User: Fold these one by one.
Assistant:
Number 1:
Amino acid sequence: MTERIIPIGPYHPLQEEPEFFRLHVEGERVLRLDIQLGYNHRGIEKLAESKSYDQIIFLVERICGICSTSHPFASVNAVENLIGVAIPERARAIRSAIGELERIHSHLLWLGLAGHFLGYNTVFMWAWKARETVLDIFESISGNRQNYAMFKVGGVRRDIRDDLAPGYLAALDRLRPTLDLFRKAVEDDPVIHARTKGVGVLTADDIRAFGAVGPTARASGVDVDVRRDDPYAAYDRVEWKVCLGSNGDIHDKIVVRLLEMDESLRIIRQCLGPLPPGEIDARVKGVPPGEGIGRHEAPRGEVFHYVRSDGTNRPARYKVRAPSFMNVATNVKAVVGGTISDAAIILAAVDPCYCCTERAVAVEHGTGRRLWGGDDLVRLSRDRTRRLREEMGRP
Amino acid sequence: MDELRNALGDLAEGWEERHGRRLYCAVSRERLVEAALRLLGRGLRFATASATDMRSAMEILYHFSIDREGAVLSLRVTLPKEDLVADSLAPHLAAAEWIEREMAEMLGITFRGLTDTRRLLLADDWPAGSHPLRRDGEVPG
C-alpha cells in the first residue's frame, strides 16, 4: 500500500485553535506525524520586555483562554522568587483556591471535548453545564468568568468575602453527584472502554524523553506535581494527594483528571472553610536586579516562568514555557500505530493549548489590514445572523 | 544537592544559589551536553531552556527540575556575540528539540547537531536573518 498524507489543519472543524498535523498513513494505520506550529504566535515574551511587572501579570493572564490564572500564578511565583518575599497566609489560601477552581473548570471543559471527540455529546453537554457552577463562583469572586485578575506580586488583588465562602462551598458540593456520574461512566461504559483503553499509549520513558508534564505524565505513572514537589501558595498547608494512572492510555488520562477534580474540591474546602484571617498583600516595593524562576501546576501541567531583572521596572527577559509546549510533542509517539479514527481523541488527550504553546496576536499583519474592534465583531455577527435567516427564508 | 555538585564536579565553572531552592551552574559551551547528560542520568527532568541577549554576549540557561527536592538547577552557558554556536541537546533528548528551534529563530543561535532546522513559531514570510528577541538591531514591524 502507498503512504498517503492526511492533513488536519491548520484550520479544521476538529480543532478549536489553529495548528497543523500531517498524518502519514498507510491504509487506516498512522505511520508518522509531523506537527507544524506558529499559527497562533503573538510575541508575548517580546511584549513583556516593554511592560512593567504589574502589567505583565495582566499580559500573561491573556496567554491562555481557558486556564487564565495559570500564567499569572507562575509569574508572581517567579518575581517573588527573584525578590525573596513571603506572602501573607490569607493570600496563599486565596491563590490556591483560585488555582483549584480553575483546575475543575478546565478539566470539565476538556472532559466535555473528549466526550465530543468520542461521539458522546451527552458528556459534552453535561460537563459544560457543570463547569458553569465554577464560572458563576468566579464571577461572584472577581466579576469575571475568565481573566479573574486576582494575582499581584506580594499577594492577591482582591479578597474573597468570608460571608460568601460557605455559599461557594455549598455550590461545589452540588457538583459531586455529577462528577460521580462521570466517574462511573468512565469505569463502566463498554463503549468508552473500547475507544480509550490501550489507545494512544505513552510509556514512562516516552514521558521522560519528551519532558511531558501534568495529567499526561501522571497517567503514565510518572509521579510529578510541582504543587507537592516545590510547594507554593497554600499547597503544603492542606491535605491532598497526587493522582496517578499506570497505563498511559487515553482512559487513564480521563481517570487522572476526574480524580484530580475531587482533590481540587478537597483543597478548596480547606482553603475557604474558613480563610485564614489577616492581610492579603505584602506590599512589595520595586524589583531588584537578579533572576527568578516560578512554577505552577496548571491543569495541563507545570507552567515555568523565568524572569531576569536589571533593576528597572521592566524585565530584561521574560521567558514563558507552557505545559502544552512539552505535551503536544508527545503526539508524534502517541498516534503512531493507531488508526486514523483514533487520531482525533489522541491529539486531544494531552488537552493541548496552542495559545500557550506559542504565546504568540499579530492582529495587524504587514500594512493596510484593519484592526477589528468590539463593535465591528458585533456587527459581523449580526450581519451573519441576518444573512442566515434570509437564506433559510425566515424573517 | 551535594551529590549533584559532585556529579558536575570538574564541569562546573561557578555556582550561584538563589532564594527558594534555585541553583545556577556556569559551564563552558564545549562541556554543556556532557553536563546535561550527567544531570539527566541522575533523574533530573529537563524543563526548558531560555536564551537572553545580554548585549555584550548571549546567555543560554538550560533548566532542569530536581523534582524530589523541589528545586531547579540551571546550567548557564555564555556565547560570544560573534560566534553564536552551541552543541544541540536534541540528539540526546527529544524534549530539547522545539526549544532549540525556538531559540534559533528568536535569537539567531545555531545549534550544531540539530537536524530539524525549520522555523517553529515565526511566520514563513518573516524576514530571514531577523531575530525578534535580539536587542542589538531593529526588528521589522
Number 2:
Amino acid sequence: MRKGIVVLFILCLLVPSAIFAAGAQESDQVTIAFCFQDLETEFWVAGHKAITETLRENGIKVIEKNANEDANRQLEQVKDVITQGVDGVIIIPQDGESAVTIAKTCNEAGVPIGVFNRPPSDKSAKNLVVVANNEVIAEAAVEHMAQEAMKLGRKVHPAIMVGDLGDPNAVGRRQGFMNVIEKYPDLWAYEPVEIPTKWDANVALANLQSAMQANPDIDFLFTSSDFLFPVIKSVLAPLGKWTTIDDPNHVILAGLDGDVTAAQLLEEGYIDATGVQNLFYEADLMIDAMLEAINAGNGTPDKWMDDPGFALTQANLDTRAEEMWGWVLYKERQ
Amino acid sequence: MKQQTLVKIKSRINNWGKGKADVQDAQVEISRGRSLAKKILMSEYFVLYLTILYLLVLTPIIPRLWHPMNIQNVLSNMWPLLVVAIGQTFVLILAGIDLSQTSVMAMSSVVGAVVMTSSVDPVLFTKSPLWGIFLTDQGGLMGSSPLALPAGILAMLLVGLIIGFLNGFSVAIFRMPPFIVTLVSMMLFSAMAIFLTKSENIRHLPEAYLQISKTQFSVVSMSMVIAIVLAIVAHITLNRTLFGKRLYAVGINTTASEISGVPARRTIITAYMVSGLCASIAAILYSSRLEMGRPTLGSTLFIDIVGANIIGGVSLSGGKGKVTWTIFGVFFFIILANSLNMLNLSFYVIDMVKGSVILVAALLDVARSRIQKAQN
C-alpha cells in the first residue's frame, strides 16, 4: 500500500510537469486581469461595465476577480493572475494602502498595473493611476450649495457625510468641502458636523440619524458619494425635510459621483448639485495607457492621470447634463 | 433420450454450481472493494489521497497549476492559514471552538503596528484615542527605536495570549459555552481594533518586519520556517506531552477526565491561550505580507480556518484531531481555492464550492465516526 502511495505521489509530480511543458505555448491574445474590491455602488458597477466592455471591444481577453472587500484576498488574486501570465492588471483596490502593496507585487513581476479611481496612498510603487480631482470637483459642487445658501439671507448649519478617510478620494472630497467652509466664514451658524460613513450605507444611516437628532437644524448637507442619497432620503423624509428646492423646508443637498440616482434627483429637483467624475473618460484613459505600456513592453509604467470633472447643478442642468455618465444611463433606462 | 436428459440435468447442476461460485466470487470482490473503500475512508491520509487525486484531475485542465510561481503562491498562502488553523485544532480537540481568532489577528496587527510604525498621517489619526499617547507625528510608541521590532512582535504575541486567556478563563471557570464566549470576544475585539484606529490602516512598519514574509531562500521562506517549526512543536505537544494527553481526555469527556484527576480547567485555559497565540503569529505573517496593521485583518478568514480543520478530519465533537490532519486540510483547502481562482470562476461560485466541500467533509466526519463505532 505504501509503495503504491509513493508511486502515485511521484506520478503526481512528474505527469503534470510533462503536461505543463507541452502546454506552455501561449496565445497571442492580450490578456488583462481586472481585479476589483466589490461592486457595492452604482459608480463601481458602471466603472466595471465601462472597463470590461471597452477591453473586450478592443479584442482583449479579460479575467475578472472580485475580492469581496478583502485586501489579503485581492493580493492573492493578483498573484494568481500574474502566474496565469496576464499582460496587465487593472485594480480597484480596497483602500489606498493595499493599492501600494499590490502595485509593488506587480512591479516585482514586471507586469504593468493600473489603479482605477482609488489612488495609492503614496507614490512608492510604479503604477498607472486614473483619478478624479476630488477636491476640485467637491469644491465646485459645494460652491453651488453656498451660492444657494446665500440666497436664503440667513446663516445655515453645514454638515458633511465623510467617506472612509483611508481612501484618498474621501480625503480629497472632505478637503473640497472644507475649502468652501473657509471661504465663506460668515455663512455658517455653527461649525460643520462631520458624519462618518466608512462608505457603508448602514454606518451612514445610523450616524446621519444621530446627527439629525443632535442637530435638527442642519440645512446644508454634502454627501461624499451619491450612493448615499437613498439613505439621506430615508432620514430626512420622516422629518419633513426631503423636499424639492423650491420648498422652504428644503435642505440644501449635493453629492459627488454623478450616478443614476443623482441624475434622477436632479431632474426631480430634490438635490441642488452633484460633482461629476467622468467615468467613461477615466476608463478610456486607463485602457489607452495600459495598452501603450503593454505594446512598448514596459512592465513598470508610472503615470498619474487626472479627470478634472465638473459640478452638475440646477443652474447648468440644461446645458451639461449629457456630460454626466449617470444622466446618460438614466435616460437610457427611461 | 433418458441419457440426453440426464446429461442436461448434470450440466445444469454443474453450471448451477459454477454460478454459485461466481456469485460467491463476486460477493468476495464487492466485500474486498468495500473494505478497501472503508480503509481509504478511515485512513489518516484520506485527505492527502484526495488532494493528490484532485491535482491529477486538474492538471490537464490547468497546466499552470505546476508553474513554479504558482507553487510559490500556494505555499505563501498556505503558511499563515496553517499557523492559525493549528491553534484552532487545539480548541477543537477540546470540543470547543474559537471564533475570536480573527479578532485576535486584527487586534494583534493594530497593536504591533502602533508599537512599530515609524510615521503616521496626522490627518487620518488625530481622532484616534491613541493619538498623542501611543501615536504621534513621530510615529508609534517605539517607532524610532532599534527595539521596535522585538517590542512590536512581543506586544502582538501578548495580545493573543491575553485574549486567549480571557476566553479560556470564561469557558473553564464560569462554564460558559465556548461558542458564545468567543463570539462576544470576536465582536468586542474587532470593534476595539476599529475604534482604536478609527478604521485606518497603519503603515510604515520596520523593513525587518516586512522581510518576515519576503525573505526567501529558493522555495524556503521565513513564513514556511515559522509555520513548520510551529507545526512540529504543536505535533510533539499533542502526541508526546502530558498536556496533549490531557487535552484529548478533556475533549472526549470533561467530567470523566476531571474525576480521573486531569486538571481540566488549566488544560482548557492553556488550549485557548495556544489558539490566541497562533492567531497572533498568523497576524505577524499576514500583516508583514500586507505591509500594514489592519483593523479588519482576517475578518473573512474564519470559515477558511475551521473549514481546513474539518476537511483535515479534526472532529467538531472533540477528542479527535492531529496536526498532520490540519496540515492536509489546509493544503487541500489552499489548493482548492487556488485552482478555482486559476479556473477564473466568479467569487460567488468559488465560495459556493468551498462551502460545499466543507459540508461534505463534515458529513464524512459523521460517516467515519459511525464506521469506527461499528468496528468497536
